[in-house]
Amino acid sequence: GDLWRKYPYNTKIRDIYADQIAASARYNAKRGRVDVALQEYEKVLAIIPKDTLAIAASANLLAEKQELDKALYRVDSGLHYYPGNEALTFKRATLLERLAEAPENKSYRDSLFGNAFLAADSVAKMKPWNADYVDYANYLKSKTFKNMVTFGVLLTTIDFDNNRTRANIATIQYMRIKKWGSWAVRFNYAGRFIGTGLQLEGDINYVHSKKAYSYGNLGFANDIVFPNIKLGYSYYRTVAKNVDAEIGVRALRFNSFDLTSISFVGGVAKTWNDFYANFRTFLIFMGGNTYATAAVSARQYLNSTDYIGALFGIGNSPDDFSTNFQLPTFAGIATYNIGVSYQKVFLHRNTLGISAAWYNQRFDVSKYRNQYDIFLTFSRKF
After folding, report:
1. Could you write out the DSSP letters of every residue in 150-199?
2. Are 183 and 201 in contact (CB under 8 A)?
3. Tens digits of per-residue pLDDT, 111-167?
4. Can you tell me the distance from the alpha carbon of 121 to that of 114, in angstroms, rounded to the nearest whole number?
5. CA–CA gap between residue 262 and residue 247 (Å, rounded)
6. Angle at which helices 52-64 and 86-101 pack, to 10 degrees?
7. Is the predicted pLDDT of residue 106 greater than 90, yes or no?
8. 295 contacts: CB under 8 Å, gap ≥ 6
9. What number of other Cβ atoms are within 10 A of residue 343's Cβ?
10. pLDDT-based confidence at 57, cuts 50/70/90?
11. Rounded to whole angstroms, how far apart are CA atoms 345 and 349?
């Protein structure tokens, strides 16, 4: 240091001095003395402002301290000297992503994700053969999408009284993602020999806080297949670590039966690492009678989005898309159902889902009804 101050234009002495300070900074960082290490990297940058190793290392330490704004400023200062630097540009993308995920930046979330994508995309274009770079850019781009359309078809086969019949339903949905949650509009179509069933539904998910959100549903249909009026509301809240509870109400109106069902729902869900389990039960009041139903479902997540699942239920649920329109007929019938499901996300914007279910209903001692469902869905964000 004394030599450098005596000979400030001697770059060899300057570089040796800066290397010694940087070595001390690395030594302190490894031993957890982050503040000391940062002070030493500041000294290095005061001597050599363009030192990329000091810029990157100090940015990492600032990010470790959760001082993301300062870390981003440090990276941007490096990009000022080295525009398009691969490592610094990638670091900029990751820092912007973390800033976007921070609750205090909720108002700027969209623009932060947009800038993060631009940084990641520029790196991916530098090395298009690098699958990790391309995948990360696709992931960040998916965070900027606010719309999603879903197409689905329910293929149903029914075995009953020595007859086999089919009863399919097609559905299309548009969803809009908002800062407060999301809303969706869905149209369901069911062609039958007695006519065509049409149903229009609307969903809303409203986030109250980090620990609570609400779900609402409203639907109208003609007198064929679907319930004429469908209403639903559920309130979800985190009650313990990785434990969520649900409480809600459902209402279905069936003009052809001149009946209205009112149901109360309660549920609890828990997550263990990549395993998820949920228990739900309904208490149904209809036509002066009371019915109950319960279901247990589970998912094993293969990554953050893909999963395989299973379900077992007893009774007839007003939330079951496949059978709720038959609730007045089946409510008192002993029913068991078992199902499996699989979801796969491609390029962080395309989702393919498939589920299969088997319903077994006992009408009397020797008379059973079996229903087999296959539900296929495809969703795309844009």
Report:
1. EEEEEEEEEEETTEEEE--EEEEEEEEEETTEEEEEEEEEEEETTEEEEE
2. no
3. 999 999 999 999 999 999 999 999 999 999 999 999 999 999 999 999 998 899 999
4. 10
5. 14
6. 20
7. no
8. 279, 280, 281, 311, 312, 313, 314, 317
9. 19
10. very high
11. 7
pTM: 0.85
Question: Running DSSP on this structure, what letter comes out for residue 57?
Answer: H
371, 157 Cβ separation under 8 angstroms: yes
The 3-state DSSP class for residue 83 equals coil
What the block records as the tokens of 146 is: 């606010």
In angstroms, rounded to a whole number, what is the distance separating the alpha carbons of residues 150 and 140?
Answer: 21
The beta-carbon contacts of 296-304 under 8 Å, at least 24 apart in sequence, are 299/275, 299/341, 300/274, 300/275, 300/276, 301/274, 301/275, 301/276, 302/274
Q: How confident is the model over 356-369, as pLDDT tens digits?
A: 999 999 988 788 99
The residues facing 266 across adjacent strands are 247, 281
Q: Tokens standing for 27?
A: 């030594």
How far is 173 from 25, CA to CA, in rounded Å? 56
Residue type at 280 in one-letter notation: R
Neighbours of 300 (CB within 10 A): 12
Q: According to DSSP H, which parts of the chain are helical? A: 2-6, 11-30, 34-47, 52-64, 68-81, 86-101, 109-126, 131-142, 327-330
Report yes or no: 306 and 332 within 8 Å, Cβ to Cβ: no
